[in-house]
Amino acid sequence: MGLSKREVLHVAHLGRIHLADDEVEKFADQLSTIVDYVNQLSELDTEGVEPLAHALPIHNVLRPDEPRPGLSTDQALGGAPDAADGFFRVPRVIDDGSSA
Amino acid sequence: MSAPDLITTIGMEVHLHLATRTKMFCPCEVRYDAPPNSCVCPVCLGMPGVLPVMNGRAVELAVRMAIGLGCTIPAFAKWDRKHYYYPDLPKNYQISEYDEPLGLGGHLDVELDGETFRVGITRVHLEEDAGKLMHAEDGSNVSVVDLNRTGTPLLEVVSEPDIQSAAQARAYGEALRQLAVYLGVGHCNMQLGQMRFEPNISLKIGDGPDGSGGQPRYTPITEIKNLNSFRSVERACAFEIARHRDEFAADPAGYTLENQGKSTRGWNDDRGVSFLMRSKEEAHDYRYFPEPDLVPFVPAPEWVDKIRADMPETPSQKRYKLVTTYRLSPYEVDVLVSDPDLSDFSEEVLRNAQDSSTAAGLIMTEGLRFVNERDKPISKLFKPGDVAAVSDMIFSGEISRSVAPHVFVQLVETGKSAADIVRDENLAQTSDEGELERVVDEVIRENPGPAQDFAEGKDKAVGRLIGMAKQKTGGKANPNVVREILIRKLRG
Amino acid sequence: MAILDQTACQMRDALRRRDLTAADAAEASLAAIERLDPTVAAFVATDACAVRRRAAEIDARLDAGGPVGLLAGVPVAVKDNMCTADGLPTSCGSRILDGWRAPYNAHVVERLLAADAVIVGKTNMDEFAMGSSTEHSCFGPTHNPWDTATVPGGSSGGSAAAVAARMVPLALGSDTGGSIRQPGSLCGVVGMKPTYGRVSRYGLVAFASSLDQIGPLARTVGDAALLLQAVAGHDARDSTSVNEPVPDYLAVLDEPVAPLRIGVPKEFFTEGLDPEVERLVREAIGVYERLGAKLVEIDLPHATDYAIATYYIVAPSEASSNLARYDGVHYGYRAPEHADMIDMYMRSRSEGFGDEVKRRIMLGTFALSSGYYDAYYKKALRVRRLVRRDFDEAFEKVDCIMGPTSATPAFPLGERLENPLAMYLSDLFTVGANMAAIAGISIPCGFTGAGLPVGLQILTGVFTEDRLLRISRMYERQTDWTSRRPAICEASA
Fold it and tell me: Worst-scoring range by mean pLDDT, A15-29, B207-221, C166-180?
């Protein structure tokens, strides 16, 4: 199985990448080849195998609750494409409640 | 066939800021009064290559709250990333606990109008707050972002859909706040946005009087986002319940969870209406996966036991104590446990006062007046010993209840002890029989009518006579002694 | 001997003896860059003034006889995905970070500065470390110093080429699926991926967080040990950094490991393996045999093809998340033309990222998306455990595993650009170590008839870098490959 153009457009949108029409086809082909290759994993019986999310068995790395100075506002905004009056500026957002 | 019963079911997601000094994953100070983008560092700004590190205090407070809600603390909790693009979320993912949170399966008992109802707690988990996005005030087509709040430790408490009315929704929110404040988990200052509510509302469609019979059906779930006051929780729930009823009445076949799924709504508090934000079709694909930059949290059983052992008293424990030990009424208890400072103070007063009822009454009327006027906790205004002393002086008749307001003013203004104030201002009631007999004789002479009435058995007249006696002594005549003298003289 | 023909260890000793000044070392390095880099294109940023200032300052301290750090006065290059606070940009070979200046140093950069190294510049790389040829860079490709028509490997191709062309004796790279070892092999230098957690990732611009690890590129095993010594160790800012003592690698370097059992997995000697590469690698293993090592044939059934398949789910998934932050809001590139907020995101990212990065973002987004998570991402994590088990079982029987680092020597520029899968298979023998978090190294083991270097890969268990270096050194002492210089160095030296 591969990725349809529709699926490519869907994941591109989820990943906020704009694709030109001719790119959609190119990426659909390339991604399909790769997905076909990774599909060989389905040959493997992984029943009962615990997923390995963390490579090393480290846990409980905690930090003391002690404040430390961060960046100045100028440093924080220094690399921003658009900033003024201490704020980052972006095109006007209509609140769709995405914020958690 | 009559219309089926509709039973309200509400589940609540409550977010609250933990009472930590620093953010969840970086050592930036949590502040609410700072200029925009001044409490930030590369980590909370989501700059390239920087890494999160868990705030140990936040984890401890979250576990404390989970224990306070009767949750089990799983042996393994892990962090996940939740992805969505929004300018107030610099990494465009939020670090949260998705499928292995640090608290599972508890409950909260909530009092409302003298009745107790139980709300199941599905889960308690930690996450990081987002920043703030505002529209620019210069009228331009621009939004502005302040990331001071980004990364503030946020506790989410998710309830079962056990809440059955708008009033219960509010009471649940208030009870949760009270618990968090008692346990020192959060300050829960609503004005500062330290607590936010998201009720999920649906009506169970019954076809019998108890809503039972057949497969349960529901009206479509609506989630109301970001309510930040108890009043708006109650109003929004009431509005939504009514709206569901109307929608269902108009289309009983179509307006069901099966057909319409879940939608997200906002609440316009000024207009008192909810509005659609997005429906299921536009639902996000959050693409959760385990956060590789953070290691799991595996609490040692001894560590959890220690938190359990060191738990501050919960409101229900305090309530139980006040009711059983001091025999206070449910109303008195409600008032006195509403806030941990007040309840600790009250308990201290009650422990030292001879009469609980007198003492509780003093705290609730005289004490709370100053708390409200000065906007200060009661423990910063009075000493429990002074309030107990005033209570005892009233109970023993040494002073009149009517001088209590004056004594309380003096306690706040002068810092003198209650005993000194009563002595210095000569506020003690006169119980000296010789002096009072002389006064009573005068009163009888000057008020022959009422005296006659009382002599003839009209008890009501005694009030007037006692009042006259107090007037003549500048309020210091002990009314009980005066009454005894009157009885002896007029009825003896 | 010319300054830059010395190893880092020799330079360090000469600097301490004051037979060499940091200024001269820095000048030699700057001159080599000026002479060779127009051809090689290993560096994306240097700041000659800052380098001279820094060298003078270190000379002053060396002259005064005060205490100095481990690398006092030694020129070092840093891959451009490690944040540098003062002066040098950090752009990861990406237009989306073009011109961005980090307001903080990566942990490894702090450690280099504390060791009194002279950071000469930032080296080229595949954009966000995604690639095996250093062709996917907004700055253009780096060329292999041994044959400038071929690639240096990648993604740390700039660092590997800079060391191979003797512009610097030491460079830091990062290895997510082979990005230190494979360019090390293709450029004929030593490239080491330490155990995951050995070196802090703080300030390393993330590609795949559960796999990324910083390590040294150097001409000799001893130099690699020296650089690892300088940067290894615990860092409280990286929760995955391990709080284990760092051994004195140099002190034990020349102690051979005996007895030595070498695992030779048949999966590493497959059909696609270039015959010349196979011959040279087998000869190298033969050198160990003559030193008394015992060869053991082992099975790593999941460590090659399945590991690659797993890798191309896990790494893009993490990358799709890690790279979500490049959105034109808080720093970096913003598309000038946009209709609204979402359009601004999409155009900024579309214009800011190259095709390989887009492919991986889409692939990872796909693997994590609703309906595919279990079949792809979760499945991959299960197979990742099987890969780990393969290695755990192998290391019960052997002390190390040997095989080729790369199936081929350096390939021509452009050859694999239009075929992403062929490029991905460049990492066939290296990704297993990243999946399993273990230590691995590539050391030069000869040259093909065409004069291209070939690398021997050696793998050992977690936190056994000392043993890995000792094993590597055993071979290095028997051979002379490290003294060969690319022709471009001869021509103008």
Answer: B207-221
Q: What is the DSSP string of A21-82?
A: HHHHHHHHHHHHHHHHHHGGGGGS--TTPPP--SSS-----EE-S-----B-HHHHHTT-SS
d(CA B323, CA B327): 5
| C122 catalytic residue (yes or no) | no
Find out whether B64 and B19 touch, Cβ atoms under 8 Å.
no
Query: Burial code of C122-139, b = ≥16 C-beta within 10 A, e = fewer?
Result: bbbbbbbbbbbbbbbbbb
For chain A, domain boundaries = 5-41
Whether C298 maps to a domain, the answer reads no
**Separation between Cα atoms, residue B128 and residue B319, nearest integer Å:** 33
User: Residue C454: which H helix or E strand, with range?
Assistant: strand C453-460
- Cβ separation of B93 and C236 shorter than 8 Å? no
Residue C367 lies in a domain: no
> pLDDT tens digits for C291-341?
999 999 999 999 999 999 999 999 999 999 999 999 999 999 999 999 999
Q: What are the tens digits of pLDDT across the range B126-171?
A: 999 999 999 877 777 899 999 999 999 999 999 999 999 999 999 9
Query: Is residue C77 a part of any domain in this protein?
Result: yes
Task: Report yes or no on C382 lying in a domain.
Answer: no
A97 in contact with chain B, both atoms CB, cutoff 8 A: yes
Chain C residues within 8 A of B50 when measuring between CB atoms: 104, 202-203, 237
Using DSSP bridges, classify how beta strands C75-79 and C118-123 pair: parallel, antiparallel or unpaired.
parallel
Residue count of chain C, please give it: 493
Name the domain count of chain C. 1
Domain with C15 in it: what CATH number? 3.90.1300.10
| Per-residue pLDDT at B281 | 47
Residues of B in contact with A98 (CB under 8 A): 84-86, 284
CA distances from C57 to C16, C117, C190 (A): 14, 11, 30
Nearest to B45 among C201, C330, C345 (CB): C330
Q: What is the largest CA-CA distance in chain A?
A: 58
8 Å CB contact of B142 and A89: yes
Least Cα distance to A9 among C63, C358, B230, B228 occurs for C358
Q: Is this complex's ipTM strictly greater than 0.90?
A: yes
CATH of domain B433-491: 1.10.10.410
State pLDDT tens for residues B313-327: 999 899 888 889 999
Give the gap in angstroms from C-alpha A54 to the nearest C-alpha of chain B: 7
3-state secondary structure of C240: coil
The CATH number assigned to the domain with range A5-41 reads 1.10.20
